[in-house]
Amino acid sequence: METSSTNQEKILLIKWALSIILPLIVWFLPLDLPSQLQGYLAITLWALIMWIFELLDPGLTGTLLCVFYILFHVSTPQLAFSGWLSSSPWLSLGALIFGTIMVTTGLARRLTYAILSKTGTSFIGIVFGILLVCTIINPFIPSATGKLALMLPLIIGVCQVMNIQPKSKEAAVLMIVLFNGIWSSKMAYLTASVDSVILASLVESFTGYNISWSSWFYQMTLPCLLWTVVSSLLAVYTLKPERIYIPKDVLKDQYKALGSITAKEIKASILLVILALALVTDRWHGINPGWTLMVMAGLCFVPGINLLTTEDFQKKINFPIVFFLASSFAIGSVAGNVGFVKIISDIALPLLQTLPDYAISCSVWLLGFLGGLVLSGIGLSAAFTGPISGMLMTMGFDPFLGAFSLIWGFNLVLFPYQCGPLILVYGFGYVKMSDLLRQMIIRAIVGIIFFLVVTIPYFKLIGLFDKVVK
Questions:
Q1: Is 270 exposed, middle or buried (0-12, 13-18, 19+ CB in 10 A)?
Q2: Which pLDDT does position 231 carry in this prediction?
Q3: Is 403 within 8 Å of 167 (Cβ atoms)?
Q4: Are the beta carbons of 416 and 54 closer than 8 angstroms?
Q5: Which ranges of 262-304 would DSSP assign to H, the alpha helix?
Q6: What is the mean pLDDT of the chain?
């Protein structure tokens, strides 16, 4: 026991040493870069190492990241903490509150019993059930985090019903499958995410080339949905969860044992329906999903509803994850301010014009993948979609060849800070950071192969590489 403890202490010291030494090397290397940019690279590397090794709470690391940007004159306070001015942290907080409501009232468990008693109770059957539901709801709700917020309580309900413990391999698989179901299949639909809508609008504004919902669906659906299945089964294969099975008659008996639906469950159900309708119709009423979720979460404390108490709010909500999300936005915000995005653009765009057809798509994909480390999907779209689509148009290609390649690159995120849905998956505490990072790395490696072997040949088959655009 003492030997094991000593080894763990040594490993911990090595991790802390790496988190300090590697950023200092980057800081003092003679890279001939502006001091702000070199400081940005060193501080950002420090945060990434801290998150990977989980040396501090992710929220504290994110907050220190912003403070270090300010202390070392890399950024202004307004820019470093600009993430708090976006809707994303509030959307995540609202999702955490609403998810807690569904779990504490018992509604998540009741809905899970009702669904599983009719759809099947094998572990692999549940995996495909999750993917089917995600694929169906994806085109109707433009917010990926909003969709995840609706689904997460049900997945937690599945874990409770099947006696799956938080941070077990089984829980990790279900959470990662849910992420893939939302994040991978959203690429198939023009209306499934805000960044896709913005990307399409930017292509039109730069080139005049418009795309219909059906054309997007035709050009993206087959490889995207296939990738959704492949990336999900990848988690099942690599994590090797125990294949749990509960007979339907047992589930039905357990469902009956819950008794009649309670008043709190009825209230939570009504709020759930209202929330779903508000999220589905946001393109018409124009209210950001973040504000919708926060208002709905706030209603739960109103006298007469009383679905959460102040004590629940203080003890059951994982607040550090909200700090993690808001603070991680600084990586993208500050990247543009210190000139990092411009350097990438100045290097990448001239290089693309000299490459052969297939290499252009691969290079844009790589730009999306690497750019995703410092920019959000919206940030990537805003920075690169116009120039890339315009260049491809000039070369005679369909400008959406570049847009689609960029989307595919950004889909392969590595770290939770890169997208709200992955932060939310981690924030509910059902998957360990080590399992999550390992899966995202494996997913990225296989995703590279999938893009080369499946996606590019499909783009070729449907004519995206044909020089027909004038």
A1: exposed
A2: 93
A3: no
A4: no
A5: 263-280, 282-285, 289-299
A6: 83
Q: Is the pTM of this model over 0.85?
A: no
pLDDT, residue 120, reads 60
Q: Is 229 exposed, middle or buried (0-12, 13-18, 19+ CB in 10 A)?
A: middle
pLDDT score for 20 = 94
The pLDDT value recorded for residue 105 is 85
Q: Which two tokens stand for residue 289?
A: 């999903």
Place of tokens 């054309």: 215
Which pLDDT value is given to residue 257? 78
Which tokens hold the place of 319?
């607040």
Residues 228 and 179 sit within 8 Å (Cβ to Cβ): no
User: Which residue numbers in the chain have pLDDT < 50?
Assistant: 469-470
Phi, psi of 122 (to 5 degrees): -80, 155
Helix (H, G, I), strand (E, B) or coil at 6: helix
- Provide the residue ranges of all domains of the chain, joining segments of one domain with +: 1-80, 88-319
CA 274 to chain centre: 24
pLDDT, position 75: 92
Q: Is 64 exposed, middle or buried (0-12, 13-18, 19+ CB in 10 A)?
A: middle
Contact between 409 and 364 under an 8 Å Cβ cutoff? The reply is yes
State residue 132 phi and psi, 5-degree precision: -65, -45
What's the rounded Cα separation, in Å, for the pair 210 and 310? 50
Position 197 scores a pLDDT of 72
Q: Cα–Cα distance between 225 and 222 in angstroms, integer? A: 6
Of 258, 35, 236, 250, which is closest to residue 162 (Cα–Cα)? Answer: 250
Alpha carbon distances (Å) from 46 to 62, 294, 331: 11, 32, 12
Q: Reduce the DSSP state of residue 317 to 3 states and report it.
A: coil
> Exposure of 206 by Cβ count < 10 A (0-12 exposed, 13-18 middle, 19+ buried)?
middle
Residue 464: what pLDDT?
83
Q: What is the pLDDT of residue 21?
A: 95
Q: What pLDDT does 446 receive? A: 95
Of 271, 324, 290, nearest to 436 by C-alpha is: 324
Beta bridge partner(s), residue 245: 122
